[in-house]
Hints:
Oligomer: single chain
CATH class: Mainly Alpha
Largest sheet: 2 strands, antiparallel
Mean pLDDT: 95
Distance between the termini: 21 Å
CATH superfamily: Farnesyl Diphosphate Synthase
Amino acid sequence: xxxxxxxxxKAQRTDEALDRCLASWAGAPALLVEAVRYSLFAGGxxxxxxxxxxxxxxxxxxDTPALPAACALEMIHTYSLIHxxxxxxxxxxxxxxxxxxxxxxxxxxxxxxxxxxxTMAFDALGEAGNATVIREVAQAAxxxxxxxxxxxxxxxxxxxxxxxxxxxVHAGKTGALIRVSVRAGAMLAGAQSTQxxxxxxxxxxxxxxxxxxxxxxxxxGDAARLGKPVGSDAARGKATYPAIVGMxxxxxxxREAMQAAIDALDDFGCEADTFRALARFVVERxx
Length: 287
């Protein structure tokens, strides 16, 4: 299956499950559900759910056991975007080509929508019935993972961190959720420890390639394709790969991470071909 078809199929499967999940929020205020839907169904690629579901298929040929984790990871990712866009953080006015949630519904509603998504993500994840996966997702999303990485990212603004420090920032901010998406799908599909180890390396390198490519797109991307202005990282003095090592070296590092991700799949056969193509897509994409 080509990458576009793969992502489209997994996005549809995830959207249907997310719709059922929101329909189960009995007693939730209508405004809160409306605000959550505004951001949750704003047209993202469902990249993290695709990793969860795709990994489960590589291991067990069926993605159904991993569907609760796919929903949970997308809910956590969406909450993080809602909060990142707030004036106290990145102060962005547009996300995916339309006003950010706090511009559409106000800051208080945006904060509460993010809170609801984060909390209910673990309600959804509980359906998977695997306490180890729940803990791993919590750790990846929390203080030593995504949230900690976001704090480090903010602290690094207007500074010149070393390359190792920059990698630490993005291993938390971006890489942690990508890594745990792969691990969760593998564990819920009953993967052996050696398979989980190789897929973990894939997830780590894919997350690195994804972040470097994002940094490059903020310089060279098309705002219409991205759905948000380009150059915002430089305007805020963000620590990025192009800012620290230059554009040419950034592209080299992205391709090295891409190849390392592909190499991590050497023990797998043709069932992992889509994931090999996905690593190339991450680096070569234009949005």
